[in-house]
Amino acid sequence: MSLDIDCIVIGAGVIGLAIGRKIAANGMSVYVLEKESQIGTQISSRNSEVIHAGIYYPKGSAKAQLCVQGRDQLYAYCQARGIDYKKCGKLIVANNGAEVEKLQTIKAAALANGVDDLMDLSATQITKLEPNLSAKAALLSPSTGIIDSHSFMLSLEGDLENSDGQVVLRCPVRDISINNIGFTVTIDNLEQTKISTRYVINSAGLDAQAIAHKTIGYDPQFIPPLYYVPGRYYTLSGRPVFKHLIYPVPEDGGLGVHATIDLQGQVKFGPDARWTGTIDYYVASTCPKHYIAAIRKYYPGIDPSRLHAGYVGVRPKLAAQGEGFKDFVIQTENTHNCPGLIHLFGIESPGLTAALAIAEHVGDYIVAPQA
Fold first, then answer.
1. pTM, whole model, 2 decimals?
2. Residues 128, 30: one domain?
3. Residue 115's domain is classified under what CATH number?
4. Which of 129, 212, 307, 371 has the smallest number of CB atoms closer than 10 Å to its CB?
5. CA 199 to CA 7: how far, in whole Å?
6. Residue 198 phi/psi, 5° resolution?
7. Cα separations (Å) of 318 from 85, 253, 300?
8. Which residue in 255, 350, 261, 329 sits closest to 54, CA to CA?
């Protein structure tokens, strides 16, 4: 059997595109396979478009290390490529004594991760920065920002193609089998097209576990549990009420119903965390009362009539509700003993921020063939 391609990356979201770009730049032939008709239609296009600083994650975790590294790489990449972004900053707000104490815990965790620019703000200082915001205390993160994620993905795709890699759309994977030179990837089309490759990288996001189950010869005991957690976003019509991103103290399963701004200044709220276990993109036209109550904790002047249904993003969590922190899983042959196979599980936030760092990390496992 002969090789058709050096490497197949499954999933053309921001992670798959970044990985494909990195590997192609190293001189290898790459296909990035995508089951949908466009790139980045799931997690990558249904998020807050925030460049995270690396504040919340446990010291030494992959999320902490890759977020901080990826943040700096992403800002530099955007600057070099002319991709729209804004380092607008973020306020993490506290409204009672217990939350004020948590701010210092958050600050200590951030410092341990190398995020040393957080600033304590008093209620008076908060009001000067954000007159519509109500909080007893806050942390200001000046290195948090926002990005045009679609332009970022298009740029990654362009880089990939400039290095002779290719994104192949409408190309769902039927199965992956191990052979004597690597793998055979069968496409779920009428022809049942088979592609032989030395490396397979599963960056399928919401479908990562399903792809792993389709890998013949890979022990399913290594597939972590998957919990789909949809989160709803609502947009605020009219004049912007904030200039910074506004985040409450984190809650179980997420960062709470926060306020973000896009590059045009429009404010949106979300996401909440709904542990439904399903991929559900429905968002009611009327904002739920508990959602409005969460916003009112820091924005008491909210007018519910200005809230309009936005969109839903689904997070591929590895932890059940109440289970606590679970890290990114970038699984190599060191775990499953299948050389050339890499599975990425649970790549949720801060995946967008960490994309270039994740690609660099994965690329370290991929060895270009000798000329």
1. 0.95
2. no
3. 3.30.9.10
4. 371
5. 5
6. -85, -35
7. 30, 10, 34
8. 350
